[in-house]
Amino acid sequence: MAEKATIYKATITLADMDRSIYGDYNLTVALHPSETVERMMVRILAFCYCAAENLTFTKGLSSMEEPDLWLKHDNGTILQWIEVGQPAPDRLKKASSQAQAVHVFSYGRGMDVWWRTNSAAIRALPKVTIHHFAADELQQLCALADKTMKLTVTITETIAYVSSATENVALSLRDMPQ
Fold first, then answer.
1. How far is CA 75 from each of CA 5, 15, 27, 39, 79, rounded to the nearest angstrom?
2. What confidence tens digit (pLDDT) does each residue in 47-69 have?
3. Among 170, 177, 55, 162, which residue's Cα sits nearest to residue 115?
4. Cβ neighbourhood burial of 175 (10 Å; 0-12, 13-18, 19+)
5. Where on the tree of life does the source sit, at the highest rank (predicted)?
């Protein structure tokens, strides 16, 4: 029998000073059996950095046809296609043909090799923006992961300050060099 996803609940109080977005979000996030907690937490961060009324988590790893998150217009147009990890340039090219903007939140081991190998092809895609997080900062964020999380996230000058009842973490969102 296949393993089932583990469900995490996150209550986020968000203050994005860079975009003047403020709100409370109740997120239900499924941790796929093949997914790490680190990847799940990056998905939550991606949600915070892109927060908007119609931004939703998709089937993610369960579907090759969908990104990790997307923002759709009421008419079905994909405004933002949001990937987490190190997607192949072909996937980003497909996303570019379907969405008005594509954001990748990259992290993890091998990121430098992935970028060196794929940067020329990705740079040729004008709708694609690549962001990344430092591994040490993400490890601190993972310490906040719990099946029921209550987090306060303040974003200013692209730095996310994430607080739980007991811990505070700062994460810098960096753009890959163009």
1. 31, 28, 24, 30, 11
2. 999 999 999 998 765 567 789 99
3. 177
4. exposed
5. Bacteria
Output phi, psi for 161, to 5 deg: -100, 115
As a whole number of angstroms, the distance between CA 129 and CA 163 comes to 27
Domain ranges of the chain: 6-175
Q: Which of 45-49, 89-93, 171-175 has the lowest mean pLDDT?
A: 171-175
Cα 157 from Cα 174, distance rounded (Å) = 11
pLDDT digits (tens, 9 = 90+) for 96-139: 999 999 999 999 888 889 999 999 999 999 999 999 999 899 99
DSSP reduced 3-state for 97: helix
CATH architecture of the region 6-175: Roll (3.10)
Q: Cα–chain-centroid distance for residue 35? A: 13
- 152-173 pLDDT tens trace: 999 999 999 999 999 999 999 9
